[in-house]
């Protein structure tokens, strides 16, 4: 067996072993960090169009965001075009696309100013899981203090709890 075949088998076994079965965020983070270490971003981007569960695609999108993989934008756009607007996968595609094309500031401003109620959960995830900067924390704090609705305040509060539990 060639070295490339061994590596491919290792990747398949590794991703199968850690693929989240219950959708928990802890498993998602483990899955994303292992993927980030063993599979290059361009290979991950190609997997977005494969017939894999939506939740796995969400993990891949967060990994691409963490690695700043702007070259994956065409695959992200194609995936997004196939999804219903209301789906979690579509919302994650939207937030990751904004981040990869415009940077963190538009997402943080939207959190801070309650600019996108529909995508608040995904923006909060980007803030604590991908960015993890003082500016991201400040945006979450401001959302908790100033958001006009309890639902978004709760999402920002949960993001800060996750952040603190991982620090």
Overview of the structural elements:
- This protein is an all-alpha fold and 167 residues long.
- The protein folds into two domains: 102 residues, no CATH class; 64 residues, no CATH class.
- It is built from ten helices and no strands.
- It starts with a helix and ends with a helix.
- The N terminus is likely disordered.
Between the first and last Cα atoms, what is the distance in angstroms? 42 Å
List the domain count as a whole number. 2
What would you call the structural class? mainly alpha
User: What is the tally of helical segments?
Assistant: 10
Question: pLDDT below 50 for ≥5 consecutive residues: which ranges?
Answer: 1-25
* Element-by-element helix/strand order: HHHHHHHHHH
What gross morphology would you assign? globular
> What is the CA-atom radius of gyration, in angstroms?
16 Å
Strand content: under 5%
Mean pLDDT: 83
